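Title: Prediction job returns without error message
Component: structure pipeline
Severity: low
Priority: P3
Assignee: unassigned

Description:
Job completed but the reporter wants confirmation the result is attached to the right record. Sequence as submitted:
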Amino acid sequence: MPNHVSPFGLDNVCKSIIVQLVRRGMDRVLLFRYALITAFVALLVVLGGQSVSSAERPDSFADLAEKLSPAVVNISTKMVVNGNNRPQMPQFPEGSPFEDFFKEFQDRGEPSRRAQSLGSGFIIDAAGIVVTNNHVIENADEISVILANDESFQAKVIGRDAKTDIAVLQIDPRDSKLTAVSFGNSDGLRVGDWVMAIGNPFGLGGTVTAGIVSARGRDIGSGPYDDFIQTDASINRGNSGGPLFNLNGEVIGINTAIFSQTGGSVGIGFAISANLATKVVGQLQDYGRTRRGWLGVFIQEVTEDIADSLGLDSAKGALISSVTEAGPADEAGLQAGDVIIRFDGKDVVKSRDLPRIVAETPVETTVDVEVVRGAERKTLSVTLGELEQAENGGLLSRSQSKEKTNDTKIANIGLTVAPLTEELAEKFDLDTGETGIVVVDVKDGSPAADKGVQPGDIIRRLNQSAITSVDKLIEGIASAKKEGRKGVLMLIESDGQTRFVQISFDE
């Protein structure tokens, strides 16, 4: 950080310069002129520093709030409370006088209506397009959108997405002139940037708060595509669905959740990033639903142990544990045991990065997928399917996945294995048509037991190589130990589901 000259220190600076010049015998007139020039330059430096500081931190958000507030709306919903929502009638002895009383109470009157929720939203099109959170309008029978000037409109749902908690509404503005705002580029945000939130906390309406970006790319466990902006701008109940603005007046997030043990703001709020929201909102407007890219793989995190077993330089990427048969990945040649490190030119650092990147890629797009397979790096071309179609077709179950694939004790990992026979299939309730190497016994306290391996599990792969015989399994374990590895990576099938486990060698 540069050192700024304090105005109170200017006289000291000038005195120091004068002393030095006197010592050098400079003429007094010239000396005085030189001192004045020096003081003036120093003053400009100070003022310049102050102007930079002012540009970084506005004196007021008033102009921005005044400009943007008309585009922010309050949202109120109602839902029907039917008889199924009423408490069950207590059980009384037949003929009890209380029986008729409670029955009459249960049956009395028409279903009532009650306010379900209050939330916020914002207008993105003057034709009446409103964006909010899905949880604000979920299960609502009536949705009211109230403008900053208290005008109220009935809204209909164009589309909503539970996975990202985004909904798009339509109102008929009639003769009203609506103010709209637009999305900005949330990828350009930096931690420490100023942001402003406008919303309807606790039903108060038109509330403006400001703060900074505290963090980016937060995963709060709310869904598969978490990419939240964390902010300390005050966000409370009722702010949900409202916009988070940058200083250019662009929406860079949708306020969605808070971290709080009391229910009130403690300075930790979360907003859906604008770049994620933009894609979802566009699909909801165009199709009334989302159309996400689908790869057709099940993945797991690459831990340090797994990275070591695979000979990877670092614990990065997404490890494929199984591939959906006849899915896009299967047709492209991706295999269980492959580690995806890049997808469509984007780095896959954590396994959670991959679902979001794939989902944001348009359906039927052909992309390059870079994987680590054994000691090689391969790039495969994959044409994506549609996730929603796969869901409707039941293709997201691991049962749809495939792996291209005398008792023997393996003492250094604590397993006893054998080829899968009809006898063993019957014993462990396995498909008699299955092939592979089955775990017959697991030694208590062994490395395999510590990782949850159980009798009846089938070993499909070892360090990315298909296991078709006990001999191949033993050879693979011996080879890994000879190479100085700390353990091996096994693909285990249990109850029709597959997972990779890293099993250390028993010392």
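Comment from assignee: result matches the submitted record. DSSP finds 13 helices and 28 strands in the chain.
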